[in-house]
Write a structure and sequence with these properties.
mainly beta, 126 residues, single chain, 2 helices, globular, Protein Yojf, Chain: A
Length: 126
């Protein structure tokens, strides 16, 4: 899968566009800590937004917001991010977002939610 690094100077505009394009997509967030290993923080919750918050370069963070508009939101904050990568499929469809920080690596995977009218009558094996 092709992967491209998003330059730090472009983070604000990239995340603004990215959030609008992927709002409501089902997202899974896995955080990989070099000392504690991998842990899934969120499993297939609707993505609301990914934003950069910075008062100064030393206190910059990236906030990922999950949830539905009529329900409680879940926030995950990545302090002191250093790199952002966008992974795409061979068809150039966004597949994952990877955010590195001093403490950990966050991997945000997502998929487009399927409307009920497209699965009506489909029986899933239990």
């Amino acid at each position: 899968m092709p992967t491209q690094e998003i330059p730090r100077a472009s983070w604000n505009s990239f995340f603004d566009t990215f959030s609008r394009q992927h709002q409501g997509w089902l997202a899974t967030l896995e955080v990989i800590d070099p000392n504690a290993g991998a842990e899934e923080e969120v499993h297939e919750l609707p993505l609301q937004s990914v934003t950069v918050n910075s008062e100064t370069e030393e206190s910059e963070n990236i906030e990922i917001t999950f949830g539905k508009a009529d329900e409680e939101y879940f926030f995950y904050v990545i302090d002191n991010p250093s790199h952002v990568w966008l992974e795409q499929t061979t068809q150039r469809v966004n597949a994952a977002l990877e955010i590195d920080s001093e403490e950990s690596r966050a991997l945000l995977r997502f998929r487009s939610p399927v409307s009920p009218e497209f699965v009506d009558g489909v029986v899933l094996d239990q």
